[in-house]
Write a structure and sequence with these properties.
This protein has 12 helices and 13 strands. The longest helix is centred in the N-terminal third of the chain and has 21 residues. The chain is globular, with a radius of gyration of 19 Å. Helix 1 packs across helix 7. It has one domain: 3-Layer(aba) Sandwich (Rossmann fold), CATH 3.40.50.720. Strand 1, helix 1 and strand 2 form a beta-alpha-beta unit. Helix content is about 40%, strand content about 20%. It is an alpha/beta fold and about 300 residues long.
Length: about 300
């Protein structure tokens, strides 16, 4: 199968590309960022997904499947207009090109933060729930819009198989991702009086889950999670960090200072309340299981 991966130069994009290439697929990549040491079997195109040269890749290469991973997920309050152009504009271009040039299967790799964090959220979110996160976290709006646009392809382009995956946070030795950035330093801020459940999976399991969706040609929206969620305090402890409890009233003022991560206002809810998803539908549809449990995932990220 010829598979085109957008955002291939990212850590996870590279891992998915190498996994597919090793398993006999022909892999093509689109990314503005270079991948200088990419395997020779993987054909790279350093182009902007929103520009004409990217369309030429679809037209000339004629991929059978596309895995869309070219979204910005690091949640800062800066450059919001550029994020929207990349996340929503880029996603729109991908699906338009796929429809125009006969792609058979498109996988949109989204995030479980779609559901939002709130005090009255259900313990386990299912795929039919609305995107409540945008009401309290405006920085999520572009990612949520991209998710909804991808989902609309299920009825707009019925001749094409569309898969929307809402993945939990990742942890692993590459130390890449939203949760990894939050836990990156030796001291991790918490909101005093709160200890929410955090749900994550080892980055290797993320790769195999995406590839399972490709193999089984899933159509629809699926939550994807690995091991059971754990309290934030436990994640901080097992990864070798130290928790710094901060009163909510001064929490934001402390962010970005004293070596603490920078967070936008809407992110405070995600440090107070859980976002936990039910992924039974995905597991039943693919037979996929995670290879790494929660302790192994945390240990692989442990502070050296």
């Amino acid at each position: 199968m010829k598979v085109l991966i957008t955002g291939i130069s990212g850590k996870l994009g590279r891992m998915v590309a190498e996994y597919l290439s090793t398993n006999g697929h022909k892999v093509i990549g689109i990314d503005r960022r270079p991948w200088p040491d990419a395997p020779k079997k993987i054909k790279m195109f350093n182009v902007d997904l929103r520009k004409r040269p990217a369309e030429d890749v679809f037209r000339k290469q004629k991929p059978d499947a596309v895995i869309h991973m070219a979204t910005v997920t690091h949640l800062t309050s800066r450059h919001s207009e550029e994020r929207q152009r990349i996340n929503l504009g880029g996603t729109r271009r991908v699906f338009e090109h796929c429809n125009q040039y006969g792609v058979k299967h498109v996988i949109f790799v989204g995030r479980h933060t779609y559901y939002g964090a709130a005090p009255d959220s259900p313990l386990y979110h299912t795929e039919d729930e609305p995107p409540a996160g945008v009401m309290t976290y405006p920085e999520l709006a572009d990612l949520i819009a991209a998710d909804l646009y991808a989902g609309s392809a299920l009825w707009r382009f019925p001749e094409m198989t569309t898969t929307v995956l809402r993945m939990v946070y990742t942890l692993g030795p590459t130390k890449h991702g939203t949760l990894a950035n939050f836990l990156r330093g030796p001291r991790v801020p918490t909101v005093m009086g709160y200890d929410p459940l955090f749900q994550f999976m080892h980055e290797h399991d993320v790769v195999t889950a995406i590839c399972a969706a490709l193999e089984h040609k899933l159509a629809g929206v699926y939550n994807v999670s690995g091991p059971q969620p754990v309290p934030l305090s436990l994640a901080i402890d097992v990864t070798g960090r130290s928790a710094i409890p901060i009163p909510e009233g001064i929490f934001l003022a402390m962010m970005g200072r004293f070596g603490l991560p920078r967070l936008p206002r809407g992110a405070v809810a995600h440090v107070k309340y859980p976002v936990v998803i039910d992924s039974d539908s995905f597991r039943e549809a693919t037979g996929w299981t995670n290879e790494f449990d929660e302790v192994q995932a945390m240990e692989s990220f442990r502070w050296a």
